Amino acid sequence: MTTAEYRENYIQIARDHLAHWRETGVNPWQSAVHVEAVGIATSQLVHHYSDMGAKILDAGCAMGDLLVRIIGRERFGCDFNAEYLEVAASRGITVTQCDLEAMPYANDEFDLVVTTDVLEHVLDLNAVIWEMLRVLRPGGHLIIRSPDSEDLTGYLSPDYPYRFAHLRRFDEASFRLLLT
Cys-Cys link to 77, which of 7, 61, 84, 156 (CB 3.0-4.6 A)? Predict the structure, then answer.
């Protein structure tokens, strides 16, 4: 697998996601109830762990669904997919197109970095974690959301429409080992 193949695969996933969202207003892969519940819970964590006026980065922000819920903070989002970022920018979010393995932000730039449903997709997990920690100010907070102990078998099915989707699974122990 080359990086170009990986990127093209995810561009197709994003196009399918956006087409479905534009037609129906919902995510094609998750129930609206689930999306709403995790959106509320994650935005509550962001508000709890950041002060008014704090500078927040959503790494892998897609369309900015989380950041539109964040009030009273400077909202920044980055993603490598330009089509996602067009939607996020139209929602009032400051966006940057980049790879999460090499973000163009200064060291210690953000008070809080959040990434939701992203780390299970990335090729170089350690590089992404290091980048998020690099742009996070000392004493800042990192919030990570990912499917818990997901069964990855379905992604191996010949009928699955994409070559790559979730490349790994997480549970509490794997996150603790990764981050400590």
Answer: 61
pLDDT (0 to 100) of residue 152: 86
Query: What's the token pair of residue 98?
Result: 């980049």
pLDDT, tens digit, 9 for 90 and up, residues 63-105: 999 999 999 999 999 999 999 999 999 999 999 999 999 999 9
Edge to edge, the sheet with strand 110-116 lists 94-97, 74-79, 55-59, 110-116, 136-145
Strands 74-79 and 110-116, sheet pairing: unpaired
Taking the alpha carbons at both ends of the chain, their separation in whole angstroms is 30
